[in-house]
Design goal:
Layout lengths: L22 H6 L5 H15 L4 E7 L2 E7 L9 E2 L4 H17 L35 H6 L22 H5 L26 H4 L1 H10 L3 H13 L5 E2 L1 E2 L8 E2 L5 E3 L1 H12 L3 E2 L2 E2 L3 H7 L15 E2 L13 E5 L3 E6 L4 E7 L9 H9 L2
Helix pairs in contact: 2-11, 3-7
């Protein structure tokens, strides 16, 4: 049998994950206490059974356990909301690697600290001259200074007659009268979670690569690791800028296939002997990107600052609205994916710390 260092699951249509079913196998091969897993399952259904969700636990390369509400199947897909941001981050890791190799189709010499707006011709004239100093790093690390959740610019609720990219670029208000036009701080000096700023990355990617991020990721990543049932929304168009890939949300995927992507990150971007994503990029993205909020890397949350105290320091994760989440714990060879419709308010860290506690 393949060991945990060399095992990679075939696609779902070709058999999918190797699966443990008996308590003995879960204990011996999966390395997890089956009785504690049973308690976790009962707790999830008791507390959150009013929502629809799926949870997949992969340990030592085995699908040790999957939990579903009664109305969800293993292939049921959910919008994972802002967990999409990690996929965008990995797309930029590939873009920057292509630049390093001199392989970009429409620009050369693009780096993490390249200024973003010269790569977004749609962004001119600038709504604030300080935007000229925003870099790709600022966009990925949430340090642009563009209004975000602290200023009530939550999500991208576009008003009738306006486009999402126009709002993100500061040309129009959203449906609640909020603007993203004037910076609230100099780029790099203020951490503020916001979709309007992250949305810029879609335009940067499309203008540099000459193709949509979702198409690029399908060819370069999803098809190569056996993700078969994922869709990624676009936004804009119909007379407005776009349509372009939604960089900040909009991936629809099952728990099993989200776990597959998490497993790629766990394996440092390698899959069946091929390097899919540069390992240095995954390491960088999963490291605190600034001191303003050490829990955030580049499009991904990190536990170096012990935001989840009972979880390992090296854990990092994708996080989306309604508790769509994928935890990756390299030191434990663990991936936990949860997708669903809710709950909206979730006891952050409760699920993963209980699973960590169940590992023998």
């Amino acid at each position: 049998m393949a060991n945990k260092e060399t095992y990679f699951p075939p696609s779902e249509s070709k058999g999918g994950w190797r699966y443990l079913t008996t308590a003995e196998d879960i204990r011996e091969s999966g390395g997890i206490d089956p009785e504690k897993l049973q308690l976790i399952e009962e707790r999830q259904h008791f507390l959150y059974g009013g929502d629809s969700w799926a949870i997949v636990i992969v340990h030592n390369g085995y699908l040790v356990k999957e939990l579903y509400t009664f109305n969800v199947l293993y292939h049921t897909r959910f919008d994972i909301f802002s967990a999409t941001k990690t996929f965008t981050s990995m797309a930029f890791g590939l873009l920057l690697e292509a630049s390093r190799r001199g392989q970009l189709p429409k620009a050369q010499g693009v780096e993490l600290d390249s200024h973003a707006y010269p790569l977004i011709p749609e962004g001119y004239p600038l709504s604030d001259p300080r935007k000229e100093r925003i870099t790709i790093r600022h966009l990925l690390s949430m340090t642009t200074g563009i209004p975000g959740e602290d200023q009530g610019v939550v999500g991208m609720p576009v008003a009738t007659g306006n486009g999402p990219f126009e709002h993100a670029l500061g040309r129009c208000q959203n449906r609640y009268g909020k603007w993203a036009d004037k910076l609230v701080a100099e780029p790099g000096t203020y951490w503020n979670y916001g979709d309007a700023s992250f949305c810029h990355l879609s335009l940067v990617f499309a203008n540099i690569m000459g193709e949509e991020m979702r198409d690029f990721m399908k060819d370069q990543v999803f098809d190569r690791i056996g993700i078969e049932n994922l869709s990624w929304d676009v936004q804009g168009g119909s007379g407005f800028i776009g349509p372009h890939t939604n960089a900040h949300m909009g991936i629809h995927v099952s728990a099993r296939e989200l776990a597959r992507f998490g497993y790629l990150l766990l394996r440092k971007g390698a899959w069946n002997g091929k390097q899919i994503i540069p390992p240095k990029w995954i390491e960088l993205a999963a490291t605190p990107s600034q001191e303003l909020n050490p829990q955030y890397g580049l499009g991904i949350w990190v536990n170096r600052a012990k935001g989840i105290p009972k979880a390992p320091d090296d854990m990092f994760w994708m996080q989306g609205y309604r508790d769509n989440v994928c935890y990756i714990v390299p030191s434990l060879d663990l991936v936990v994916a949860r997708v669903g419709t809710g709950p909206v308010g979730f006891n952050e860290g409760d699920l993963i710390t209980r699973i960590v506690d169940a590992i023998q």
